[in-house]
């Protein structure tokens, strides 16, 4: 369905035989022999990876060990955000924790589709935040010139099992939280009863 369509991946997304530097000088020669979920899905759909795109150092801001990513429409300005590289490209997959996709996309005039956390598999992707407690935990998302193209890309990187497992994980967390609340209330009630008993006896 995406046969022959070129695209780029943010340089925190691992692809075998490609450097995955995470935008950091400490990892500038790093090669991870892992196929990220999004890469696997796009490859199976026929899309052609043509470049790994600049990421801010450790997926933070637009400064990396090679400098800063400039806005392709005005090279006097910077793209901003750790997904500055994907935003400066026409067709790419980036990631976001807090504004890393949406801010540079708005500056570079492309559409960034920000899916719900867990919709896209993050296997093989460096992540700042893994916690479900954080509302904006890291996730992958496509950037394209138009919104309908982003929807097509999302259809192929959608991870049904990941979404189901996330929903189950959230439900398990809710049950565990409820258990601890009930346990704490029970402990407080017993403590109160012991206090009353000690007052009566003494």
Automatic annotation (TrEMBL):
Gene3D superfamilies: Amidase signature (AS) domain. GO terms for molecular function: glutaminyl-tRNA synthase (glutamine-hydrolyzing) activity. Residues 1-133 form the Amidase domain. Transmembrane segments: none annotated. This is Amidase signature domain containing protein. It comes from Trema orientale (Charcoal tree).
